[in-house]
Amino acid sequence: MPEPEANHDADDEPLVVEAPPDVEPEPRRLISGHISWRRTFSAFQHRNYRLFFFGMAISLTGTWMQTAAEGWLVYELTNSEFKLGLTRFLHSIPVTLFTLIGGHLADRSEKRRILIATQFASMILAFAFAGLVWSGAIQFWHVAILALALGLAQAFDIPARQSFVIELVGKKDLMNAIAMNASMFNGARVFGPALAGLLIAIPAFGISGCFFFNGLSFLAVIGCYFMMRLPPAKARPKSKSLRRGTMEALNYV
Predict the structure, then answer these.
(1) I need a labelling partner for 59 at 20 to 30 A (CA). Which of 161, 189, 227, 232 fits?
(2) What is the pLDDT of residue 58?
(3) Are 132 and 101 within 8 A, CB to CB?
C-alpha cells in the first residue's frame, strides 16, 4: 500500500492526511420491500405444474410407504441384514445401469407417455406386492424380483420426469419448480415412512395395506397426467443411435 501523502505547513496547523482511493468504504446495499409470495411459488402459476405437483406428492408419499414396508417385510421374512441390503441393491442397480438409456428415450419420445407407462407398471407391481403379502404366499425371491422390476421402471421414469418439468413451467420458472420438487420429495420422505409405521401397527391394514395404498396413489398421478393440457409436440430431431447419444451426454457432463 502506498504511503499517505501529508500536508504539514506549520507546527500549529492540524495534520491533513489524504486516504488512498482503494480504502474508501463502499456503499452498503440493504434489501428493502416485502416478500412476494407470487414469486416464491411462481411455478404454481402454471396449471400443468399444479397437477404434476399434486399427483407426485401423493404418489411419492405412497412410494416411501412401500419402501418402509418393504424393508420391514424382508427382515420379517429372513431376519437377515444381508438380504435387507440386497433388496435395496436390486432396487437401485437398474437405475444405475439403465438411466442413460432412459434419458435417451426421453429425448426421442413424448415424455408424458413414458411417465404414464412407468407409473402404470409401478402400480401393477405395488398391487402384486399387496396380493402376495395378503395371501401369505410372499417369499423373499418374490420381493427380490419385484424390487428389480420396480428399479427398472424407475430407470425410465426418473429422467423423463425430471426433464418433463421444463415443459410444464418454461425456463423462467424452472428454478422455482426444481426447488418445489425438492420440497415435495423430502416432505414425502418424512411423511410416507411415518404413515407406513402407523398402518403396519394396525392389524386391519398391516404391511399389505402399505403396498395397497401405494398402488392407489399411482392413480392420482396418472389421472393428473391425463388432465394436463400440453402444446402440440414439436418435431423431434433426427434420431441418433443409443451409443452416439450416450457418448454425447457423457462428453457434455
Answers:
(1) 232
(2) 95
(3) no
CB proximity list for 205: less than 8 A, separation 6 or greater: 199
Please give the angle made by the CA atoms of 23, 25 and 30, to the nearest 5 degrees.
155
- Write out 189-213 in H/E/C secondary structure: HHHHHHHHHHHHHCCCCHHHHHHHH
Q: Which long-range contacts (CB under 8 A, 24 or more apart) does 68-74 make?
A: 68/192, 68/193, 68/196, 68/197, 68/210, 69/196, 69/199, 69/200, 69/207, 69/210, 69/211, 70/129, 70/143, 70/147, 72/196, 72/200, 72/207, 73/133, 73/138, 73/143, 73/207, 74/140, 74/143
- For 60, the grid coordinates are 411419492
Q: Which helix (H) or strand (E) holds 16?
A: strand 16-18
What pTM does this model have?
0.79
DSSP 8-state class, residue 23: G
Report the 10 Å Cβ neighbour count for 194: 13
Which stretches in the chain have pLDDT values below 70?
Answer: 1-38, 233-240
Alpha-carbon span 228 to 216, nearest angstrom = 20
pLDDT tens-digit map of 86-133: 999 999 999 999 988 898 888 888 999 999 999 999 999 999 999 999
DSSP state of 24: S
